[in-house]
Every structure is written in structure tokens, then in C-alpha cells.
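BUG-326 | component: ligand-complex export | severity: low

The export step for tryptophan jobs runs without errors, but we want the raw record kept on the ticket for reference. Input record follows.
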Amino acid sequence: MKRVYSGIRATGRLHLGNYMGAVKGMLALQETHDCVFSVVDLHAITTPYDPSSLQQNIREVILDFLAAGLDPQKCKLEIQSRVPQHTELAYLLSTIYPVSRLEDLPTYKDKKAQYPKYINMGLLYYPVLMAADVLLYKGELVPVGIDQEPHLEVMREIARKFNSVYGETFPEPQRFKTEGEYVPSLVGSGKMSKTVEGSYINLTDDLETIKSRLAKAPTDSGAIGGNIPQEGGVANLFTLLRLFGGKEMFTKFVQDYHEKKIRYVEMKEVLAEAIYKELQPIQERRKEFEQNPKLVDEILNTSISQCRQVAEETMKEVKEKMGLVS
Ligand code: TRP
């Protein structure tokens, strides 16, 4: 069975972008692969955050994982900082990778621009820790969004370099593409993101909340016609409709757009209902786990101790190869 690893930053409740881009892929993979799914809290602290809400934010992701259908009988769930081998391996891997490559990464440059007063070592180190996450479990497939491809490239480079210097040890992980992976932002450009207020719909949002979030999404006057636009608010609504509304709905509104009779209020209403329909069963399962915190703790403890065992095997091998133990 191929090994799979994926992580989601501990930034609180998951949104539709996380669900379509990552969690749906995880759900499929847990059926057929040997999976570890992680809440990456050590990555979450590389950008400004509030320590007093970190534990809550980790818990929200775990609850969303379980609610979405990740099943501890079928996959391992992990909180990154509770498996200390992640940081240990990251340090060892950092010694074989050039600083200049990390400084050149688009993800690092973006974060520098976004948080000019928060350019810390952890941020530069981010891809090395991420490589360690996956390589610790000798992961081969990584279900994440396309924006993570530069990090996957670093991961493969590190694996190759390690293998050539110290002997064959790690596979070269590949990204696993999931259907409908790119969920656009509600604010007109870019992807749905936790850090952009107004851009996202949470998995826990009720119908009213979804409606009011969609109501604020920008559109045009509805009198333009022709082909639907490639980018901007209207394009994004159509993408969401394609992802959640089904073919018939999508075609109907495209037709309305061509004929300049589109009513965005109606389209948003239909879209809200379609999204809510997908989320409702997830929300029901979430309530069950929320009401049973002991069960959630037990699931985590069992899973994390299994993870530590696998991690320790890799560490032993790595340290032997690097000459750190005899
Ligand atoms: N960088 C990933 C993101 O922002 C999160 C992440 C950390 C991750 N470690 C990982 C994803 C390992 C996959 C595998 O989405």
C-alpha cells in the first residue's frame, strides 16, 4: 500500500477550499492507501498568530477531519508538534539543502511581502519542515492544492539529495490531484483563504451564514452577455456553481448569462442551497464528536502513538545513515 501524508495548518475551522482541495482527496485515499493526516501547528506559528487560541484552532481542524469522514480505523490522525521527530528530521534535512533555493521560493516571497515585519527563520525553514513531515513517514503521495507544488519540488530535491549522499532512503513524493481542487475566493480574485476576510465559507456555516457570505460576493450589472468571464467575481460564482450545483444548474445560469437575463440574487440563492446540502451531513457528524470530547482525545492519543512508532523507525535509519549513531 502506498503511503500518503497531508497536513492542514492549524488556523481554525476548515473552509470549502480546504475541503475540496485537500480533505476530499484524503477521504478517497484513506480507502486505498496507508495514510497519515496531520494538523500542522508548527507551520501555523510561522505567521502571526494568537497563542491563546492555538489549542482551540487545532481542535477545530481535528473535529472537521472527523466530521468530514476521516476514519481513525482507516487512517492515522496526527498533531504535528506531538510527534517530535518532525522537527528532529527537519533539522537533519536542513543540513543538505541550500539557503538560496529557499529564499527564491514564491511562497516565501509572498509571505515576506504579506508580513514584512514577521520574516522569521521558521518561515524560511517552512518547506524543510514540510519535507520532513512527509519523508518521516516515507510518504509517496501528498494530496494538497496546486499552490503547494513548489514545496513538493523542494521535498523531492531533498529526498534525492539525501538518497545520493547517504544511500537510498526516501521515496520522491508526488502531489495527488483531487477533483475540483481550486475553490475561488468570494471576494473576486485569488483562492478561498482563511487569511482573507470575506473570501471563505466554513464547513460549519449554516444556510443563513452561507447566504449572507455569498450576498457580499461581487458581481456585475448582469447586462454583459457573451461568454462567461475567465476571472473576477462572476467567474468565481460560476466556478462555485460548477463545483456544487451540478451540471444542469450550471448550464442554466450560463445560458442566462449569454442571454443577458442572469439574476445574481437567484444564482446566489441556488448556490447557497447546493453548498449547504453538501455540508449538512458533515455538520451533523461534527456535533456528535463535539459532544464527546473524551472519544476525540482517545482517537488522537492512539493515533499519535502509532505515528511516533513509525517516525522513530525512520529516525533510527536516518541517524545510522548520517553517522549519528553506531
Ligand atoms: N504547507 C501546507 C499548506 O499550507 C501545509 C503542510 C505542512 C503540508 N506540511 C505538510 C501539506 C505536509 C502536505 C504535506 O497547505
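Assignee comment: Attached the raw record above. Residues 96 and 162 are 7 Å apart (CA to CA).
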